[in-house]
Automatic annotation (TrEMBL):
InterPro entries assigned: FmdA_AmdA
Molecular function terms, GO-annotated: hydrolase activity, acting on carbon-nitrogen (but not peptide) bonds, in linear amides
Name of the protein this chain belongs to: Acetamidase/formamidase family protein
Superkingdom as given in the UniProt entry: Bacteria
Organism: Candidatus Fimadaptatus faecigallinarum
Lineage: Bacteria, Bacillati, Bacillota, Clostridia, Eubacteriales
SUPFAM superfamilies, A to Z: Acetamidase/Formamidase-like
Pfam families listed in its UniProt record: FmdA_AmdA
């Protein structure tokens, strides 16, 4: 298994990125990631507003990692085999920032220990659910460079709590080699990421990449550990992200459910489809929509 260290990372996804490693389809790799604060918050009270002046940029993502044979028009399927967070995670909240910026005061850093599958939150044991916040590929030329803080068609900072061990992320390939990068691991995060962060931690992530040749969706698709497919769409507003997500799911299903009309798919989506918020705190917000697990066992990407 190839090991890809955290000494090479990006702060933006672009159309022209040089890889730091190369994987063959089907080859497994362990990817080491730093946290979204570049690992500088180590103790309660660490001054993030001062320390961030000395880090190279936001939301570092380890990579890029080239996948042999990947070409524009393909889909890169990234299976998340395992996520092992470090023994502590950091959070920082501050006034005026995030979905609760009108409620919190000042700027506060807290660091929490992680052990035995739980975070010690002031004496309360919260079971962890490690997930990947940032995962994406090189952008299309027309979209230019996009900061790792921002989600878009290439993936990026989707902050989807379903990107856990056992999930597969399907990303549309826009450049030769795909150029995968990932980071911003959270030991725990709720839908919305309302205080602008999850429990941010460095981690090791085991992945295996496969190629689906000559076929791609416009937006990233996540198959969770239970087998539910969800389409993730990002936009300036929740209304627009939700509109994109429900339309993208309908089209995804229409291409795969032979014999079912568009009207019938719309009815199915209204009965057993769930339109959800992934995050509301990035430069673009993200909504996802999928059909509940077990309803369409025959569904494949």
């Amino acid at each position: 298994m190839q090991y890809i260290g955290d000494d090479r990372f990006i702060h933006e996804f672009g159309p022209d990125m040089a890889p730091v490693a190369t994987l063959r389809p089907g080859e497994r790799a362990t990817v080491r990631t730093v946290d979204c604060y570049c690992n500088v918050l180590r103790r309660d009270g660490d001054p993030w507003l001062e320390l961030r002046k000395h880090v190279p940029g936001p939301n570092p993502a380890t990579g890029p990692i080239a996948i042999e044979g990947a070409q524009p028009g393909d889909t890169l399927a990234v299976s998340i085999l395992d996520i092992r967070p470090d023994a502590q995670g950091a959070m920082n909240v501050r006034a005026g920032v995030g979905g609760l910026g009108d409620y919190v005061e000042g700027c506060e850093t807290r660091v929490f220990g992680i052990s035995d599958g739980a975070v010690d939150f002031g004496g309360r044991k919260l079971p962890i659910a490690p997930m990947i916040g940032v995962i994406g590929v090189a952008t299309a030329q027309v979209n230019g460079a996009i900061c790792t803080e921002t989600p878009h068609m290439h993936g990026g900072n989707m902050d989807d709590r379903h990107i856990t061990a056992g999930a597969t992320v399907y990303l549309p390939v826009s450049q030769p080699g795909a150029q995968l990068a990932l980071g911003d691991v959270h030991a725990l995060m709720g839908d919305g990421e309302v205080a602008i962060c999850g429990l941010e931690c460095a981690a090791e992530v085991d992945i295996c990449c496969e190629l689906i040749k000559g076929r791609a969706e416009q937006w990233p698709v996540v198959r969770d550990a239970a087998g539910c497919y969800r389409v993730n769409c990002s936009a300036d507003t929740l209304d627009e992200a939700a509109r994109l997500a429900r339309g993208a799911l309908l089209e995804f299903l229409e291409r795969r459910l032979d014999g079912m009309t568009r009207n019938h798919i719309a009815m199915l989506m209204s009965l057993v489809g769930d339109l959800e918020i992934a995050q509301i705190v990035d430069p673009l917000v993200t909504c996802r929509m999928g059909i509940r697990a077990g309803i369409l066992p025959e569904l494949k990407f």
